[in-house]
Amino acid sequence: MKSVFISDRITLQAAAGGAEITPPVLLAPLAGITDLPFRRVVARFGAGLVVSEMVASQEMVQAKPSARARARSELGLGEARTAVQIAGRDAHWMAQAARMVADGGAEVIDINMGCPAKKVVGGMSGSALMREPDHALRLIEAVVGAVSVPVTLKTRLGWDDDCLNAAQLVQRAAAAGVRMVTIHGRTRCQFYKGQADWRAIGDVVRATHIPVIANGDIICADTARTALAQSGAAGVMVGRGAQGQPWVLAQIAADLFGQPQPDIPTGSALVDLVAGHYEDMLAFYGAALGMKVARKHLGWYAQQAGGCPQLRRRVQTATDPAVVLGLLPDALEPLPEMGQAA
Predict the structure, then answer these.
(1) For each successive 10 residues of the chain (342 residues), what is the average pLDDT?
(2) Peptide bond preceding 23 in cis form (omega within 30 of 0)
(3) Catalytically annotated residues
(4) Could you tell me where the DSSP H helices lie in 196-240?
(5) Any keyword NADP (predicted)?
(6) This model's pTM is above 0.90
């Protein structure tokens, strides 16, 4: 049964005219995963907003090639809007990076205050900023003041169970000009353990007037429906649930917000999609690095398709792109049910 929650669109006001996110189903920023080739695939099926991998602000400004590659925002197809997520500790670098990515075509600038990785937190960025709300606000003010496109924020419920301050941080962020916030329903100290607390996201929803997006453990229409019902959020953000099935955001949008049902590729259509994604990665990264980066995506596609595990390993370990492309039809062929059970 289809259910429509609140609205099928979110409007983010800004000096440059704002941005409309339709439908309110967003692709999460995932390090090493939501690069430009993957965002293009997701956009082809449909999403309200696709968000880049986290970009270190100082590295972006100082022209580190990998940082600038992560910040590229040209999709070239589909109707999804694109956001670039930036992270950092210094207001100067954050503002400079925001200007650069906005000039590069990003329609939305997202600020990372939720990454739990030790490397990021050790640099006093990401979710570490939840322990320093005054400093976090200075960074937000610097970014908002630097660009005319909408600025959004992604964070968690808090640092730990004794520091559940997302509602207070979001109230201050909204007053500073942030137009939307995404809340991952865990604390930093939980990392990705346990179950995301969608009901706790409701505390943030009730505390602010800006749209709140629910994130964490949303992998399909059923989990999205439950997350929205429990949180009262305006939309959902999907991360790991899109691995190997970039059409899942469009499926959620169809089931919950009345969007057209996507054509789920099978057989030769799936092979063509995966081959195209693979070739786009080779072009984006160069053949040597592209083959390495692509391995996880190829594995996810084959696993979702129910293909032979032995063929999946061969596809992931092959060192010749021509061999990979030649193996794809068999690697993506679902095993008979009896074979799967065995």
Answers:
(1) 58 72 94 94 94 92 82 66 93 95 91 91 87 96 96 95 94 97 94 93 96 97 97 96 97 94 96 98 95 97 95 95 97 75 39
(2) yes
(3) 115
(4) 198-207, 221-231
(5) yes
(6) yes
